[in-house]
Design a protein that fits this description.
Oligomer: single chain
Keywords: Cytoplasm, Phosphoprotein
Radius of gyration: 11 Å
Structural class: mainly beta
GO molecular function: mRNA 3'-UTR binding
Mean pLDDT: 93
Subcellular location: Cytoplasm
Organism: Faecalibacterium gallinarum
Strand content: over 45%
Protein name: Cold-shock protein
């Protein structure tokens, strides 16, 4: 099941940021989790869909992320 949210922020130099899900929770986002990454980094407020939440050592992490709009 695809979940939806928005980019809270993304640090392009470090390659990570956070998504705020429709459920109100924040999820860690690593650049490697973005499907078909083509060098266009996500920006704050950008809509995303993600297919999995992984229990990482430091919290919840989104996987299989698709950037919906710029």
């Amino acid at each position: 099941m695809k979940m939806k949210g928005k980019i809270k922020f993304f640090n392009t130099k470090r390659g990570y940021g956070f998504i705020t899900g429709e459920d109100g929770n924040d999820y860690f986002l690593h650049i490697s989790a973005i499907e078909s990454f083509a060098g266009v980094y996500p920006v704050s407020g950008q809509k995303v869909e993600y297919g999995e939440i992984y229990d990482a050592p430091k919290g919840k992490e989104a996987r299989h992320v698709v950037l919906v709009e710029q």
